[in-house]
Amino acid sequence: MLVMASVTPLFASSGQEEAISSGENSPLTVSLITCWPGDEVYELCGHEAIRIRGEGIDSVWNYGTFDFNTPNFLYRFVKGETDYMLSSYPFAWFMPEYRQSNRRVVEQDLNLTQREAARLLSRLRREALPENRTYRYNYVRDNCATRIVDRIDETLGQKVIYTDSVRHGTFRREMRAFHKNYPWYQFGIDLALGSGIDLPLRGKDEMFVPLDMMQRAATAHTTDGRRLVKASRVLNEGVPDATLPPTPWWATPMFLSILIFISTLGICVFDGWKKRISRLWWTIYFGLCGMAGCVVTFLVFVSEHEATSPNALIVWLNPLQLITALTVWWQRTRTLALIMNWYNLISVGLLLLVWPFQPQSANPAFFPLMASAVALGATYTIISFKKSSNIGKRKEPARPKRKTPRQKSPRRPK
Predict the structure, then answer these.
(1) Rounded-to-integer distance, Cα 47 and Cα 106, Å
(2) Whole-structure pTM value
(3) Is 71 part of any domain?
(4) Burial call 303-325: b when 16+ CB within 10 Å, e when fewer
(5) What would the pLDDT profile of 99-118 be if each residue is shown by its tens digit?
(6) How would DSSP label each residue in 363-381?
(7) Which residues in 22-174 belong to E strands, given as ranges?
(8) Total structural domains within the chain
(9) Three-state DSSP class for 276?
(10) Are residues 68 and 143 in the same domain?
(11) Residues 51, 89: contact at Cβ < 8 Å?
(12) Based on the domain organization, do 40 and 80 belong to the same domain?
């Protein structure tokens, strides 16, 4: 749904706008342009745009444009301060990208009166002005598809009734349906976004995905019975699926997490037998958890993304795990290491137990990784307890008995 495009608003003079509104020019046709998913991660849900054509005009209006050259773009994106723009340009510039990537493109002509079409065009022209074109992007609430749905409702001045059947139920499930061949991308989304994307949805909420929007628009109608779409056509046949092929099972997060869990269990058994700690494994595992925890903590407490907080994963992934990674190396920090390993044993263990009863959905690959934290915490505490018990049971070395001097018996007189 993210598109990088030239921002070239198509403006008309005030006289031209008045002529269009009064119907003096040739009729305007307003249509929805739905583009199938592509192989880039920002293309996995497809793209939606508005096309307006008539005599002397054939333009596309695109809410999915952004500029990578914006200062601190990546930081602002993570923080939730991502600004997108409405841009307009000739429709001839729009199609080559999708033909080149062999992506399917479908056009749906909207059943608008000329007055409504002119009103929408006027609204889009005002909104595309440099001082108006920027908006605060939200992946599921305010994007290239939801903005168009809102503009159609505003243009018609009456409620548009869409099919309200729920297909996916939550934002996360709908994302997973479109990300199925990109398990690492979905792994990152499940890591970063909390229970806010697991709330029950209405059918209209699912229209943040362009393909779902297209399907619901095809059967939508206004309160007076007018169908929203009067005709549709395929502009580019493309292939049924232009995304990458499925990720091999051995390269998925699930396989790696199971491998880490099995390795952790093996190390824990070996360390329990030897009564020592493989400190390097503790450092690698909890170091990675701590670094991931810094990102999760930032998203929960700093980011403005509405879906990043609350996030139950912060119990497991938080910066405190860096303490666990470091304190296992020195005897003087042994107490702190023991406290953190107790924390992982109890807190992460309880998190695993209560997870099915709380609202947030987890990536399946998380559970073997969380179980690894519990196993490491249990191993450290058990070995520490055994060492403490052995020290207490050590007997002090027996003191040598002092020899008492022999008393000489008195001599008998001769």
Answers:
(1) 11
(2) 0.85
(3) yes
(4) bebebbbebebbbbbbbbbbbbb
(5) 999 999 999 999 999 999 99
(6) -TTHHHHHHHHHHHHHHHH
(7) 29-35, 47-54, 57-65, 83-90, 105-110, 134-136, 160-161
(8) 2
(9) coil
(10) yes
(11) no
(12) yes
